[in-house]
Amino acid sequence: MFKYWFDLLKGKSPLRPPGALPEEEFLKRCIKCNKCAQICPYFSIRMAHAEWGKSMGTPMIFARDIPCYACMKCTAVCPTGALQNDVVKKEEVRMGIAKIDEEKCLPYNGIICRACFENCPIFREAIILEDEFLPKVVAEKCIGCGICENVCPVEGSAIIVYSKEAIAV
Q1: Which end of the chain is less packed: N or C, by CB atoms within 10 Å?
Q2: What is the mean pLDDT of residues 125-136?
Q3: Structure pTM?
Q4: Strands 127-130 and 96-100
Q5: Which whole-number Å values give the CA distances from 135 to 19, 42, 94, 103, 152, in the listed order?
Q6: Contact 16, 163 (CB under 8 A)
Q7: What secondary structure does DSSP assign to 106-149, as a single string?
Q8: Are 96 and 44 in contact, with CB atoms under 8 Å apart?
C-alpha cells in the first residue's frame, strides 16, 4: 500500500471523478466543497490530503483501494462545473486509461485469469481477450474507472489506470 501511494506522489497525476475538466481548469473551478464525495455511494471519492500540495481538498479516486463504479451521481452535485454534469452515461466518461504490464499479468505468464475482462463495466469493449486468453485494453472505449486495477489479483496490480492528464504528457 505504501508503495502505491509513493508512486502516486512521485508524478502520477490523480485520478479525478467522472466529468472532471482538464487538471488546470479543474483546480481553478473546484471549490473543495466535498459534495461529490458525500454523494458517492461507494466511497470511491476521497479528498486529497496535504501531501498533494495545491490539490489538497480536491476529489481523487484511488482505484486500487476503491474504484469508480460510474454511477454518475457526483457530476450532478458539482456546483461549479469542475465535474461536468453533461456527462451522464458511463460510456462517455474519460477519467483515464488502463495500461497492462505484460510482465506481471498472469495470462502473459501462462496462468489463466480473466478478472479485468469479466469485471470491466464496458464489457467486451474496453477490455477484450486476444486469442480468448490475453487481455488487451481498447483505449477508445476505456473509461478509466479503475475496476480492473482493483480486481487484479497480482500484488501491486498488473493493470494500472493512469489519469487522462498523465497519459497526455
Answers
A1: C
A2: 97
A3: 0.89
A4: unpaired
A5: 27, 26, 20, 13, 12
A6: yes
A7: TGGGT----HHHHH-SSBTTTEEEETTTEEEE-TTT-----HHH
A8: no
